[in-house]
Design a protein that fits this description.
Strand content: 15-25%
CATH architecture: Alpha-Beta Barrel
Number of domains: 1
Helix content: 25-40%
Radius of gyration: 16 Å
Order of helices and strands: EHEHEHEHEEHEHEHH
Shape: globular
Oligomer: single chain
Number of strands: 8
Number of helices: 8
CATH topology: TIM Barrel
Strand order of the largest sheet: 1-2-3-4-5-6-7-8
Largest sheet: 8 strands, parallel, barrel
């Protein structure tokens, strides 16, 4: 089954405990922590203390999405509370080495690709990852409109996974709302990340509505 992940970038920062708790009680299985350094992307967001506090309070699966220039500087802390640590292919680091370090520290190594990055660019790295996150907006800010053609990387990744006999999860993140989530779910991702569509308005109703839309196309089978 495709799982819904709540990006807390759009949550009420003065009421994070309330909003995250409501999302989890409503059925969200993942909390997506957007980590931004003001360099790799033009924004600064919450970091290590937030992730640590969320894990201690809720014990939920956390994905730390590292939109930073030097993710290897922070791996010890982020791996301590994250089931998944995702770095960007476009970041100026030795990607294969950092992926190995994430796994060595006990987290699932993830690799994210921006809308303009092709799947073929990361083919050689796929055996080293447990998760590929397809960005369907330019990373940095919540509330952007989805770049629909970028989502077509999902079935392509599923084909790579099948052909290469691998078992990485496929995620998608960016501009996913009630009016497009059923189309995205039909492409077969394992995890769908949503921010403002969850945290704008009634969180419980939003989660139920998104999950209902996800099921509209008979979603639930992985493509391998």
């Amino acid at each position: 089954m495709t799982e819904l992940s709540a990006s807390i970038l759009s949550a009420d920062l003065l009421n994070l405990e309330r909003d995250i708790g409501t999302a989890i009680r409503s059925g969200v299985n993942w909390v997506h922590l957007d980590v931004m350094d003001g360099h790799f992307v033009p924004n600064l967001t919450m970091g290590i203390p937030f992730g640590d506090a969320i894990k201690k309070k809720f014990g939920v699966n956390i994905e730390s999405h590292m939109m930073v220039d030097n993710p290897d500087m922070y791996l010890d802390k982020y791996c301590s509370f994250s089931k998944l640590v995702t770095i960007h292919y476009e970041a100026p680091v030795q990607t294969s080495r950092v992926l190995k370090e994430i796994e060595r520290r006990g987290s699932m190594p993830g690799l994210s690709i921006n809308p303009k990055t092709s799947v073929s660019s990361i083919e050689a790295l796929l055996p080293a990852v447990k998760y590929v996150l397809v960005m369907t907006v330019e990373p940095g800010f919540s509330g952007q409109s989805m770049i629909e053609e970028a989502a077509q990387k999902i079935p392509l990744l599923a084909e790579y996974r099948k052909t290469m006999k691998l078992d990485f999860l496929i995620g998608v993140d960016g501009g996913i709302k009630k009016d497009n989530i059923s189309r995205i779910a039909a492409l077969g991702p394992d995890i769908i990340v949503s921010a403002s569509a969850i945290f704008s308005g009634n969180i419980e109703e939003n989660v139920k509505s998104l999950e209902s839309c996800m099921r509209e196309n008979g979603n639930g089978q992985r493509n391998h």
